[in-house]
């Protein structure tokens, strides 16, 4: 199974893009993370109209559960980055719609990349979709069959997916699975200006 990640922040004079490819390893709860975050509320989508081809509430819960606990994210060199607990994310139907378009495009045109066939990166697709962002990140995956499989491939990655999920700079998330065979997944994170 394949998965990739990218993250981009927009600053007044700086634009940074980091692209990652994933190798599935493992992520474990940080020893520094408190155990008493179990009672924190989880925000669920108020509007499930975005056609995502997956269980939006389940995916948001999977992400927010790990965000409230913290996580040890693996690094390519075998090291670990301790990610502390961070605020939960809100579901964004706008991001889910943009993610769905990309997942469908990858499946229909048989490619696997953060750059679409029109040469646009995730931030450019978000801008074209009307999202005025100050930060974004994207994870993509191919071959996973369930929400849990896709989430686990990203959270257990050693190339940035886990860090994208745990980023304190991100406020919203949308995820979608391709409509055809459902083999392509896009997870899009954003923070609006």
UniProtKB/TrEMBL annotation:
<feature type="domain" description="SCP">
    <location>
        <begin position="60"/>
        <end position="189"/>
    </location>
</feature>
<protein>
    <submittedName>
        <fullName>Cysteine-rich secretory protein family protein</fullName>
    </submittedName>
</protein>
<dbReference type="Pfam" id="PF00188">
    <property type="entry name" value="CAP"/>
</dbReference>
<dbReference type="InterPro" id="IPR035940">
    <property type="entry name" value="CAP_sf"/>
</dbReference>
<dbReference type="InterPro" id="IPR014044">
    <property type="entry name" value="CAP_dom"/>
</dbReference>
